[in-house]
Amino acid sequence: MAARMENVEEIRNRVILGEFGVTNVHTTDFPGNYPGYDDTWNVEKFQKNFRIDVVHLDENSMEFDMVGIDAAIANAFRRILLAEVPTMATEKVFIYSNTSIVQDEVLAHRLGLIPIKADPRLFEYRNTGEESAEEEGSEIDTIQLQLKIKCSRNPRASKDSSDPRELYLNHMVYSKDIKWVPIGNQADVFADCCIGPVHDDILIAQLRPGQELDIVMHCVKGIGKDHAKFSPVATASYRLLPEITLLEVVEGEKAERLKQCFSRGVIDLEDINGTKVAKVVNSRLDTCSREVLRHSDLKNVVKLGRVRDHFICTFMCSCYKTPCKLTDKNANIPFTVA
C-alpha cells in the first residue's frame, strides 16, 4: 500500500481541509483496497452502524444527523425531498379583472408560488391528456381558489392623514384574501380541512382606490421534478460534520486570535492558573472557512477535518406538511426519521 497503516484510518474516515486544498475526498473503503479490512457490504453491518439523530424539530424546519452512510444516500434523500414528494400548487390562473399595476404574468407567477394547505394524498393526478377538460377540473383532482378584492377610500380616515393604511381599505392584498371555492362534493368531503394558503401574510399586490382583482385559480397535484412550485421544501441541504483538533496547547493572546478564526461557539477560552487556554467546545458550529490557515503562527497548531460518514441534514418545509410528515413512509420516502 502507498499509505502507512497509521494513516489508513484517517484516509478512510476523514476529509482533511488543508491550506491549499482538500484531501481524502474520495471514498476508498471498497473490498480489497486495504489489507486486513473487511469492507464487504452486508445488512447486519449497515444496521449496526447506521443511525439517525434528530437535533432540531419545529413546525417549519428540521435538522438531523445521518451517520454511517455514503454521500450518495444522503444526496438521494435530499433529491427525493426536492423533487419526488407530491404537493398541491396553482396550475391555472384565470384573471377576469386586474386593474392593479402588477402585470398579469407577474401576478400569475406570484400566485403560483404560494404554498397551498391541502393533503395531496386525498387527490388524484390531473390527466393533462384530456383536451376538453383543460380549463375545468373535478372534485378528485382540482382545488379551486378565488381572489376577489377591491380597494376603496376609508370614509372614516382623518383629513390630515397620509398613511395608506388609514386612507384606504383593502389596499394590501395578502394570501389570506384567497378563499377556497369547493367543487362538487368537496365541501362535505373536506369539511374538517382548512384548505387555502399555508401562510396568511404573503403580500401579493398593493391597490389604490378603484383598482380591483378578480381571479380564479385551479390547484392540482404535482411533484418538484415537474415544477419548483410543487417542491415541499424551501431548502434541503446536507454537510459533513466538522472536526477540529488542537495539536498543541494554545494560550494567551494566541488563544484569543484562534477563537476569532472560528464561528461563535466553536472555540472557548478556559482559565487555567490565570492563563487563558483555548479549547474546542462545539466543532459542529464551524462553517469550515479555514480562516485559521491564513495565520502563519496558528495554522500548524490546529487540524481541520470532516467526518466522512456523518451528515448534518437540514431542510425547511414550505408546504402544509410538518417536517415529520415529509419524512414518513406516506410521503414516499424510504426512511423514517421521526
In short:
With 338 residues, the chain is an alpha+beta fold.
For this entry, give a set of tags.
alpha+beta, 8 helices, flat
SSE topology:
Elements: H1 5-13, E1 14-17, E2 22-23, H2 43-49, E3 51-57, E4 61-67, H3 71-83, E5 87-98, H4 104-112, E6 116-117, E7 143-150, E8 152-153, H5 164-167, E9 168-169, E10 172-174, E11 178-181, H6 186-189, E12 196-197, E13 203-206, E14 212-222, E15 233-246, H7 253-260, E16 267-272, E17 275-280, E18 302-317, H8 323-326
Pfam family, one: RNA_pol_L
GO cellular component, one term: RNA polymerase III complex
Family: Belongs to the archaeal Rpo3/eukaryotic RPB3 RNA polymerase subunit family.
Could you characterize the architecture of this molecule?
- With about 350 residues, the chain is an alpha+beta fold.
- The strands form six sheets. Strands 1, 2, 3, 4, 15 and 18 form a six-stranded antiparallel sheet that branches. Strands 5-14-7-11 form a four-stranded antiparallel sheet, covered by helices on one side.
- Helices cover about 15% and strands about 35% of the residues.
- A hairpin with a 3-residue loop joins β3 (about 50-55) and β4 (about 60-65).
- It comes from Astatotilapia calliptera.
- Its main location: nucleus.
